[in-house]
Amino acid sequence: MSSLWPRIEPLLASVQKPARYIGCEDGAQSPHHASHKAGWLLVYPDAYEIGLPNQGLQILYEILNERPDAVAERSYAPWTDMEAAMRSARVPLFSVDTHRPAADFELIAFNLSAELVYTNLLNCIDLAGVPVRAADRGPEHPLIAAGGHCTFNPEPLADFLDLVVLGDGEEVVAEITEVVAAWKRDGRPEGSRQRVLRDLAGIAGVYVPSMYDVAYDGARLVSVTPRFSDVPERVEKRTIADLNDWPYPRRQLVPLTEVVHDRLNVEIFRGCTRGCRFCQAGMITRPVRERSSDQVRSMVSEGLKRTGYDEVSLTSLSSADYSGIKDVVGGIIADPMCQGTVGVSLPSLRVDAYTVGIASEIAKVRRTGLTFAPEGGTWRMRQVINKLIREEDLYGAVDSAFSQGWNRVKLYFLIGPPTETDEDVLGIAELARNCVAVGRKHANRVAVNASVGGFVPKAQTPFQWFGQDTAEELQRKVNLLREDVRRDRGVALKWHDPKATLAEGIASRGDRRLGPVIEQVWRRGGTFQEWSEHFRLDLWTEAMAAHGLSIDWYVHRDRSEVETLPWDHLSAGLHKDFLWQDWQDALATATVEDCRWTPCYDCGACTGLGIEHVVASATPPAGGSQGTGQDLSVGGAVPVVLGATR
Amino acid sequence: MTAHHLRFRYSKLGKVRWTSHRDLARMWERAFRRIQLPLQYSQGFSPRPKVSFGLALPTGAESEAEYLDAEVATGAEFDLVALSRQLSLVLPTGVDVGVVGLVPADSRSLQHDVTSSVWSVVLDEAADGVDAVSARIAATLAAETVVISRERKGTRADEDIRPGIISCTATEHVVLCELVAQPRTLRPAELLVALGLEPTAGRARRISQWIERDGAREEPLALPAAATAAPHATECAS
């Protein structure tokens, strides 16, 4: 099928940001389709400017296009104005690379990074001209796949997805390609869809929801069991052993128009063992796999040369944990190629490792935005969530930043984690005020932005059993904070809409009975739910009621130890009894250390996968890490110098 | 010694026309860094390269004659002919540098200097009113005033655009016109509205820009007589 471009272009004059739909990025490919190649359409089901930078999608795009038996193109959710124009002109969802119709691909594979994009996924399937329900599809339709963090509980989308991939995608896409390319070569005959899905279900890390039966007893979920003996009872995630084998993306896409994270991004490690109990990403990506510092340096240097970016972000779940981070940052700043004009940003900074040394290296070029995430306002709260940041470490980090010329820092906090009291909530304001006080030692005008988000318990974490706060309770806590910082100059409070937190909670730990709810929200126009201007809680509550489902039961209820959870047949490598023990430890305010540096406490990730942490250095970083080499007895102590200024 | 003041003449053709003026500015900054041409930077807290863009091209319009000025650091070595080729290779498909020249350090900015642009507008044959376009052009040129409703900084106001139309003719479905750039730019879409057409009824392409001074006309930077086609025109430039 030829390009849809001649039919797309006339629509562009009347839509916002038409550059979203043209492709042409530096690094974009125009792959040659052929009858022996499995065609993948990789879709990020949100706006182009959010989806384009996604590194997971870019990595798979390159890996697939390097294969002789695959081609890959990309697509993003068309914005509402473009969707309307496409529907009225009968233009289907298309790839941005060669503007090919989505239904011409053998696979349409979605990246699922957030629950509130689920309705966009349905919209994209529908725009592609494919039946939204998997059961209604025939051999002429593409296979609908999904990967990404949300797939560790894909059950709410089970009705719509043909296959789901758990964990790292680098290797498994090859195995899927072989099965799908063979299906294409055989001409996708009538009745072949079941066969190809059955074959795919045999690939490690691939979950085919339709191959499982679900049994309920009233509201209670009893079991999810395979319908055939060759389909696994439990699907284990895929994990690549060594990041150095995968130096991707080699040619990061450089968009022609503005996107988020518009800079060179180099992943310096994957996985995290700090054991923050609220953090799904940290739990499901274990173990830690660091990229060698030589490879980091060459990816940075070649990437800057190729892209012309003047900023590089060293990405991971906690970048300051990387062994030798200071040398890597210093090396980039000093690189003659960078001409002293390349800024370095470190997302997800660990405060206990953010020193004057790192701050001064970064400040040599440009003071990139600085964000710390204490998450909890009091030491007690941080022990419960196992984010062991001591007060003195936080103030030390903030002091380092302000002493090197920063005048603004951003702090991230959660409200609504287990056992939270009003004292813990108000601790957030206290902490922010103290950071302002630290800054005032260096400058008169300092700003501390405190961003507060409502906590949504996630599957495969120790908090998966916890009943989420209601929207009313979260709003009450937000109001408490607003009142408390009202007179504080220097503290700016921002918060996430508690109503959106509720909708996220509905999708986060739901089972297959959520399918019709998501479909109804979508059919009533509830797309782009991540965007406040489009978010509508009433659509969600009405759909829940229409299908006789209790929000309280799905969202606000504590689960018991014996309850079957909707995702128990899917594994991120973590033992369920480890997660339960960690949940009990949280309630007892007991903490665990970073296992990179301490004996293994057998969460299951390394032993089950037969691989180990890959770290460049066997000794913990100076200053300690998550309890290792740190005196936690003083965790909540406010330094004397601050106490005196208040 | 002072910095070198360079002027670049380039095109914006094909799919890339759907990018904005701001997008184009970022493309150029990355391109200069990719070829490692050391630009002068402004002083201050957040140093920026000294690059100054000419008249903005409306998103969706094409051009064969866009311009920008950049200051290259003192002591930098470069070859004007090689520069245009190097830049074209790292700029997106459809953005090709035709010629690079030195301009005097005291040149006025392009935005103030350029007085008019010549445009061709290929009309959509199916659009309402296209058949009558020649008659409407004649009527428009004959009129004393041509008042349309223009949007200016978010508010609409009626304005006489007749003084902004220097010339206008049509053959088949192609309108060729010259529109003023001072005191402010008249856009081709506004001319279409004056002709009773939808603003999106045609595909506009800037053919040239002109500086009129003391009765003489010249281009900000003329193409050399033997100007060649784009070095890497491919399918993205459809």
Task: Give a brief rundown of this model.
Chain A is α/β, with parallel strands linked by helices. Helix content of chain A is 34%, strand content 14%. Chain A has a domain at 5-236: Rossmann fold (3-Layer(aba) Sandwich), CATH 3.40.50.280.
Key terms:
heterodimer; A: 646 residues; alpha/beta; Rossmann fold; 6-stranded mixed β-sheet; 4-stranded parallel β-sheet; 22 helices; 14% strand; B: 238 residues; alpha+beta; Alpha-Beta Plaits; 9-stranded mixed β-sheet; two-stranded antiparallel sheet; 5 helices; 11 strands; elongated
In helices, the fraction of residues of chain A equals 25-40%
Side by side, the strands of the main sheet of chain A go 2-1-3-4-5-6
Unreliable stretches of chain A (pLDDT < 50, length at least 5) are: none
| Total helical segments of chain B | 5
Distance between the termini of chain B: 45 Å
Describe the overall structure.
- Chain A has a domain at 5-236: Cobalamin-binding domain (Rossmann fold, 3-Layer(aba) Sandwich).
- The N and C termini of chain A lie far apart (71 Å).
- Chain A has 22 helices and 19 strands.
- A 6-stranded mixed β-sheet of chain A has the order 2-1-3-4-5-6, with helices on both faces.
- With 646 residues, chain A is of the alpha/beta class.
- Chain A is 34% helix and 14% strand.
- Chain A is globular, with a radius of gyration of 24 Å.
- In chain A, 54% of the residues are buried.
- Chain B is α+β, with helices and mostly antiparallel strands and 238 residues long.
- Chain B has 2 domains: 4-107, 2-Layer Sandwich (Alpha-Beta Plaits), CATH 3.30.70.580; 114-218.
- Chain B has 5 helices and 11 strands, in the order E-H-E-E-H-E-H-E-H-E-E-E-E-H-E-E.
- Chain B has helices at 21-34, 80-90, 110-113, 133-142, 188-194, and strands at residues 4-12, 51-53, 62-72, 97-102, 116-123, 147-152, 155-160, 165-171, 174-180, 202-213, 216-218.
- In chain B, strands 1, 2, 3, 4, 5, 8, 9, 10 and 11 form a 9-stranded mixed β-sheet that branches. In chain B, strands 6-7 form a two-stranded antiparallel sheet.
- The longest helix of chain B has 14 residues, at 21-34.
- Mean pLDDT of chain B is 90; it is low at 228-235.
- At the A-B interface, helix 1 and helix 9 of A face helix 1 of B.
